[in-house]
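Quick look at the format.
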Amino acid sequence: MDAWTITIVCVVLFALGLPIVLTMGLWVVAISYFVVDLSLANMGQTAWYGLENFSFLALPLFVLTGDLVLAGGIARRLAAFANSFVGWIQGGLAMATIMACGFFASISGSNAATTATMGSIMIPEMTKRRYDRVFAAATVAAGGTVGVIIPPSIIYIVYGIVMNVSPVDLFVAGLLPGALMVVFMMLAAFLFGRFRPGMVPPAEGKFTIKGPFETAWGARHGFIATGLILGSVYLGIFSPTESAALAVVYAWIAGVFFTRELPFRASPRVMHRSAQINGLLVPIVALSIVLQQVMSLLGLIEKVGAFVGAFGSRAAVTAIIMLIILLVGTVFESVPNVIMTAPILAPAAYAVGIDPVQFAMIFLLGDTLGFITWPYGLNLFVASSLTGIPYMKISVMALWYCAALLIPWVLVAAFPWLTLGLLHLGR
């Protein structure tokens, strides 16, 4: 009864306008103190020890890489390269935005960094070209979801540690699913331009063979950074965290000495901006880690595990698992979701013959939908902060892209070779 009372109070406060982060924080503290009898000191220690993991060091490094790539003009060149392919189609700038998010994701490893960086570049450009601003914000938020699927990715490192799966295997397995996400979101942007022409301007210009070659040379430093990160990991030269440090060094050198768009004096300012972004993300992670403990003490983890295990066939278990991932992903940030939910669902998946790497991709692709769905879509918050557009308006528009992302998710669940094929070729 106490738990229900606290939950209802928190829901009412959220409906009255209390920010979702504070709402969840209030719920965690109240449940911890009044229901499961945890001390406030225990909550602080749980959050601290949960974050005290070497793998989390890659998070600020990937965020800093994204800011350096933006400040050094590399991200803008990647966007120009993407625009040279599809910018001449109606809705092409939105398609180019999603493609550019894919390119940037191969450097940054963070959904929030991808959304923030590409949003700062592409939203003003789409606004200038008379795209609907809510659609532009939703496009950037949706494009940012590939930031944790296209390798490198901090979530692969965390998942590998928690579930005893090789992060390098996840890096390989994520290539095709990440490409499918980009393709289907680009298709969604194209269809939106067809069905809602009033919100998307007519096409401008035309395609030329020369354009991609010229812009590819301008974007070369982005491609080199991607090659350094992925190559060093796949060849076993560096760990993913060390490769993130390598990316920071190269992005800084490229911006200062090659593109010369990052003044040396501006480096502290870029680092300060990265620290601000991490200051937004890390408290969310810490809060969710405490939430994991509370859910476990309430007995919810065991009940969910027993519920899933009651379904016998592979198709039924997969469907139930995907539904749970979808629901939980809308509430929790990706890292705590991995820590809390994956260990519960994985045994049931393994029992019906789902490969651990395939299950990882099913879990993580479903988890990305939570970045652009109410009530806790992190990418929606980032896009809202960039544009000043209310969070709920962007979340409604983002449902268009959510529908598109369901397709690659189902394909990955139905066809194991989409995640395991490249692994088998490399062995």
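Next, a different chain entirely:
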Amino acid sequence: MSVERYSIGVDLGGTNLRIAAYREKSIADGEIVESIGLPTRVAAGSDAVADDMSKAILQLLGKFGGGENFAGLGVGTPGPLELPDGILRNPPNLPGFDGYNLSEAVASRVGMPVIVESDANLAALAEFRLGSGKTYAASSLCMLTLGTGVGNGIILDGKVWNGFSGMGGEAGHNTVDPEGEPCPCGSRGCLELYASATGVQRMAHALRAPSATDGEASPILSARHIAESASAGDPTSLRVFERVGTSLGIGLGALVNTLNLELYVIGGGMSAAWDLFAPRMMDELRMRSYVYRLNAPTEDESRTRALRKTHVVRAELGSDAGILGACLLPFVQG
């Protein structure tokens, strides 16, 4: 009789914090058995966030931790991230966290080792093991997560690829417009500025004319509302998602030419607008990447998920990818 094994995972985002206990059924199957959601109190400082996180971890440890059946504790965080130490290095979406040793801070509060990894790498790990990677029988994949920013995770031959210092997979800060807007990372025209939820808000706000009645600019809408307007045919919102698609196509073209993997996955909250940006994205990708053109699947090959073709797909795990990856991390690296 097999013994159930558990882990605890944390998904630290710039807006929300999620902590979950996970039960492993097999190497390619498992389930979240309990989760806790909290706002990320970025304005209160890094220690306040670590306090909130640790209290929730201790709550779940009381139910699911301890003993040989507990695999460990995994934490996903926005990067850049210095590994294996777990030190944040000027993360654009966590202001005030530069130099913060997240691994040490949480470990000292909960009394056990903590494995820290990039949130985008963990989303990619979950997609590889439990989602599209499993569906397409892929040995490697590259994932872009479109949320508050644009994360990037790479799985090579079944393993997370970190680079030599833990900062591999930062395609969200590759330039797609050399003359574009300044980015908090210090560059200009980064993919993140044109394919994230905040980028969609910024572009829509910049394109909308001032109100005819009072001369003031219209209020900044959420990315979801802008997507709904685009689906309803609003020309300004449609222009925004055309730009999203163009930027993603440029970014993907560089990744396909560089990596030549069989699977590229688009996830994160913004992937819900797939139908609005994917056609333009694929047109741009075909134009930008000769490697893609040489390996692009036909319609029939896409439908049958043919091997040895370059597939570009929407992620399967939705908003659970990051937390599932954090829960899987102890089983992979523990």
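The chain has two domains: 5-124+322-333, 135-316.

See the schema section for token definitions.
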